[in-house]
Amino acid sequence: MSDLFELTLVLDLALSDAEAAELRWHLGQGPRPEGPAALTVPPAPARDGDDLRPADADTALASDDAFYPALDQRGLAARIGGHLFADLEPRGDGTWSLMCRQEVHPDAGEAIDPLVHGLAARAVGGDTERTIGYLRFHEDIHIGSAIIVRAGRPGLRPCGPRARGRDGREPGGIRPFSVFPAEIIP
Hints:
This protein is globular. The chain has an eight-stranded antiparallel sheet. A hairpin with a 2-residue loop joins strand 6 and strand 7. The chain has helices spanning 17-26, 109-121; strands at residues 5-13, 75-76, 83-90, 96-104, 130-137, 145-150, 153-158, 175-176. With 186 residues, it is an alpha+beta fold. It has one domain. Residues 27-53 are annotated as: Disordered.
């Protein structure tokens, strides 16, 4: 058994030139930018009652030693089936459209977690709750969790048959986003 997951992201982004360059590098579409990271900085401090901030966000600075492209896989997937891709296109209104499907391992969290937090903070319409992607364990036929953005922060909302309570209803709870928290691993 393997610990691989399918990570799918689909969202529109408001990016500066430096942030777009960093994201293109993460997607394997450009060179590594010079200077400090513009997109993968830790999220802002949590507000009272905000349940979408990871517990270790204060220490989640991207290290240059661990800084590598997070979403650059292309071609046939080894375990999740189908095709892996990542694409970033400019829109006519100055925003960017991102769509990707990747096969990722929990060890990739050091690159993916800060990137998803950065993307959520720059999501167009991120001030309202919206779904920006999905996370699925490779052996499951159902999506494990929807990746949502609320107030510019990412979270995971369990979905599918495993997420249903004994009464058959969907839960409303959202967990802080972190790649592969123990609750979604079967």
